[in-house]
Fold these 2 entries.
Entry 1:
Amino acid sequence: MCLAFPPLLIFHNYRLHRDKTFYLTVSRMQTSQPCLQCGACCAHFRVSFYWAETDDVTPGGVPIMLTEELLPWRRVMLGTNRPEPRCLALQGEIGSKTKCSIHPRRSSVCRDFQASWEVGIHNLCCDKARAAWGLSPLTPNSWNSPNNFPKAA
Ligand code: SF4
């Protein structure tokens, strides 16, 4: 059962990397980054996190204007605390082309959510979110990554 918004790992800012060989390798990997054509997890779960992650308390944190209070010690991304959630920070069309508009400033719960098989680990919550949007589950072959092999530990 997906109780919260579990590990999410969507995009990395590889462009800062100056090694050309590395950059070209990663550029190829990015062409098969299924999260950029998905966004289902950002439009399926409630996304709540510890209140102090917002930028009124933590400089560079989650923009507080995109959140609301859930509990005295927790905030929630606007648009996700409802029966048909969709985070207000999500741009684009689910299953086609999507982008987190606050990616460098997203909450810990977003950072921790790991797409299924991205690092060789199956995530049933990723499958569940994709299924809700009529998308088939990701498989190890969805990733053009050297880390997509199954791991025992
Ligand atoms: S903040 Fe970004 S990563 Fe987190 S749910 Fe919203 S769109 Fe998705």
Entry 2:
Amino acid sequence: MEIKGKVIATTNYRSLPLIAPETFAGQQKANTNVSVNGVTNALDDHGTEHLWYRCALADGNFWIRSDLISFSIPSILDQLPFVTAAEIPNPKKIAFTVVEPSQDTLLKQVGVALAAGETLDAEEIKLIIAALKRYGTRLRKEWTAANLREAISILDKLFSYGVVMHGSDGGGWSLSEMQLVQRSIDLVASGTARHFQRLFNVADNMDTVGFRLMFAPLRIVRVPIDDVNPNPVIDPKTGKSPKWWARNSRGFELYLGNLAFTGMSFKFRPEDLIVHETSHCLNFRYRPQGKFLYDFYTLKGSYTIPAAETFDGKSVKTNFLDFDDGYSTRPRSSDHPAEVVTDAFTNDFVNGYQDSVKGEARRSQVRGLMKLAIENRLKEYGAVRARVRGESDKTLEGRLAILLDFLDETEFADLNLFSDKIMA
Ligand SMILES: [Zn+2]
């Protein structure tokens, strides 16, 4: 990606120290457009530390102090290579002193600042910068050292689930928002593990791998706007476009806007909304018998809990009169069957079914749906894996074992899927 900048004020090179031989003869006029290809920090001739950008013009490279250039896009620092003294040609000829970057300067590369009086050691800063660059995460600006450590540990933990947390320009995660996402993913993971345990009697470490099998890769983006509906449509009744607090895009990306964190009504908790958005992945991704999962779901009408699932071995009949019968939380955006069935998964993961026959009947329905989704996952994808490895086990248990083996030996490595280069 090319980063374009504009020189703000006419520069005079006698007062602006330049790095030789990367000098540029003559003056640089205000409003000149330049292409920026590197950043460093150095002392100016008054001994004050500044960031400097390396710019390219037809005549060659020159360096300019950061306050004398403007950019059309924010947060460019983490996209530019940081040029160290050793990498600058003939550093002895430079007219200013390139210094070891301070903590502040280093963290600025990834858009983060430590609060007054807070410090980290050099090794930790290196790991933090590496993690933020690796995951493409943007954080809120100011942090204490302890909170920053916790934020990185959340990123690492979520990565082990196959989840990366991104932030778009101008947006950034706060620690409490990250904790909320982690709680929500944990709920989905332990809920999914329960279904794997029931179906296959596997127990060890199923939270992480169960989630990876069914939901990874998943990118979660913090968007700093109130409405994340990409195609707002005016409702003829209200004359307004309903605000989307969050959305799931094609089963692989969650977009969480400001209201996902601040706009909660008494009707549901923020966890419920994030669990709902995550649950959308199931209906998006899995097509048992070529159908949507909601095609197997009784929205309204009669349903029988099978005898095998009841305490006394007798089936129990009930009649759903309403979409919401048996649910305690309903963060859905409409009454489309994909939304209603997603609320069913949500109630399952947050343990939100009502303590009633209808609640138990919904739970029984979701057991059936999760069985279909998991079998679909193992049949469609497990089969490919088995073929690649030259293994011919056609039972679901065998395929699950092969997939678990595979997950055991591979680190989740699908980050490139989300790189702008590939998705542009
Ligand atoms: Zn929804």
